Amino acid sequence: MKNLLSMTDLSLEDIYGILDLAEEIKEKRSQGKVIDHLRNKSLGMIFEKSSTRTRVSFEVGMKDLGGHVIYLNPNDLQLGRGETIEDTAKVLSRYLSGIAARVYSHDTLIKLADNATVPVINALSNKEHPCQVLADLMTIKEYKNRLCSMKFVWVGDGNNVCNSVMIACAIVGMEMVVACPKGYEPAEEYVAKAKALGGVIKITNDPLQASENADILYTDVWVSMGNESEAEQRRKDFSGFQINEELIAVSKPDVIVMHCLPAHRGFEISAGAIDGPHSVVFDQAENRLHVQKAVLLKLMILDDSSES
Predict the structure, then answer these.
(1) Whole-number Å distance between alpha carbons of 105 and 46
(2) How far is CA 225 from the centre of its chain?
(3) pTM greater than the 0.70 cutoff
(4) How confident is the model over 157-216, as pLDDT tens digits?
């Protein structure tokens, strides 16, 4: 694993290795034990999109590990004046130990990775959000004590997070049902990738039927960053595609409710669902920190044969 651009970069062994390390890191942090293996390492964070959880978890995680973080707004770089991604990647590689990029276009990540000599991490793109989904898997494992042989139900937009979840479910052996309005289905490219990996993926327009006997109910915002001009239409189209008490009632008694945040109560999720006893959304948010620390260690130290 040289980079983490997509869930397809990970094998089943990689996923369990990251989760095992993240669980160890989480336990040691709770005990106040220091793991400063990234001393004298620097992470550059290129963020074309604003963020709460992604930025804070990467900054705190890198500092917890003894490293240094440089936050790079595109306006602070020569990218804003026309320097190419390729040249930027080559220059930053001379200074940094790794690059985390939160970008509009997944192609930007590919160009960064193709031209960088240090690891590149996808901190969100228009196609995928692997760091989020690794945290989701960690949370599911904490609550269910397993990852395989469960029913994962996605309700809402077939977006970038949904794409990464489909790949993850295929790798770990979870059935996935995506319930979305017509026209908002996940990208066929990712459905095909998931099925090629052995995934059992079903697409439906009926969230109530989809939720029957669900082990996991998951949703995301109806209006993602960059889709603000479509807000009014999307709210009409997604009416009825809300995780709420009705969907929870037809799921398994121990169903967990997930949301990658930020959440809009009364839209994609009811207040009773996100604030109720089935919700694990704030554990998800916390686990971003632990998983990303594990990814940083795997990419910068543990899988670096020159330092082993």
Answers:
(1) 13
(2) 15
(3) yes
(4) 999 999 999 999 999 999 999 999 999 999 999 999 999 999 999 999 999 999 999 999
| CA-based R_g, the chain, Å | 19
**Are 194 and 34 in contact, with CB atoms under 8 Å apart?**
no
* pLDDT of 259 higher than 80: yes
Query: CB count, 10 Å around CB of 213?
Result: 10
Q: Which residues are catalytic?
A: 102, 129, 132, 220, 260, 288
Q: Establish whether the linkage from the previous residue to 262 is cis, with ω within 30° of 0.
A: yes
Q: Cα–Cα distance between 198 and 26 in angstroms, integer?
A: 31
Tell me whether residue 44 is exposed, middle or buried, using C-beta atoms within 10 angstroms of its C-beta: 0 to 12, 13 to 18, 19 or more.
Answer: buried
Pairing of strands 98-102, 120-122: parallel
- Flag whether pLDDT at 305 surpasses 50: no
The residue to which tokens 């049902």 are assigned:
177
Tokens 């969907």, residue located: 247
**Do 235 and 228 meet the contact criterion of CB atoms below 8 Å apart?**
no
Mean pLDDT of 78-99: 90
Beta bridge partners of 76: none
Q: Is the per-residue pLDDT at 308 higher than 50? A: no
